[in-house]
Automatic annotation (TrEMBL):
Its EC number is 2.4.2.1. Keywords: Glycosyltransferase, Transferase. It comes from the Eukaryota. The keyword Transferase applies. InterPro entries: Nucleoside_phosphorylase_d, Nucleoside_phosphorylase_sf, Pur_Nuc_Pase_Ino/Guo-sp, Purine_phosphorylase. Belongs to the PNP/MTAP phosphorylase family. This is Purine nucleoside phosphorylase. It holds the Pfam family PNP_UDP_1. SUPFAM superfamilies: Purine and uridine phosphorylases. It is an enzyme of class 2 (transferase). Residues 31-283 form the Nucleoside phosphorylase domain.
Amino acid sequence: MFPEQKQGYTYEEYKVTADWLRAKTEHRPLIAIICGSGLGGLAEILKDQKVFSYSDIPNFPQSTVQGHAGQLVFGTLNGKSCVCMQGRFHLYEGFPIWQVTFPIRVFQLLGVQTAIVTNAAGGLNEDYNVGDMMLIKDHLNLPGFAGNSPLVGPNDERFGPRFPCMSDAYDRDLRKLAQTVARELGFSDFLKEGVYSVVGGPSFETIAECHMLKRLGADAVGMSTVHEVIVARHCGMRVFGLSLITNKAVMDYDSKSKANHEEVLQTGRERASQLKRMISSFVERLERNNNVC
Ligand SMILES: O=P(O)(O)O[C@H]1O[C@H](CO)[C@@H](O)[C@H]1O
């Protein structure tokens, strides 16, 4: 007989982590910011920081990918209490999907109402350039089509319903707010809005796969975000998703370009200051319950 394999976290395990964090910091965040690959510098905009290494937090998985520091940073941004994940978890690291999304339910128990989810992504849309920011308006969940959803298993009604709606996953008013903020900052020229497609990774896509994703309606491709968004929406958070187009997906058999993680990190470094200004102004303008522009 094999020992029974763990299938997910219990409500009590999420609560142990949330209670531990609550006891260690006076911050009571309403906003969570998840940093994509190479975008961990976003946490630097938080004031009055209290930083926890993932290795010190009960039940927390450990980051293994370059460009993901593995720290939870609490602090304030323009007077608003935030928590920032400097490092997220991916399926390709070998984590089961319920571990990838573990922090989201912890944030919900801490009182977070809005999740700002960022990522590095490859551009499939030929109008996109390296360095563009893409507001995520929708997603294609390829692992989900194959049954790999973070909501598989018994549903805990304390978090949310069995069959959550995803047609409004990326809050329309928050996207409008981001457009306004980008206009004011002079960023409109490199702001796009589109559909993000998640794949399993860690290999980058083949040329045929890129063509398939584009035909399915994707504008950008990455290996994260969607699982977190599904869990955030399930437990009632509002979601704002932002991709940095770090590379152009290779669509042409004659091309000499090759997707690589170093280019992804380099584009993140080059756009770091604009991303910080964008998120900072966005949070400043975020209202507690509503942002009808
Ligand atoms: O989605 P984030 O974490 O930003 O990272 C993206 O960048 C890495 C590939 O370079 C992959 O992990 C992909 O998902």
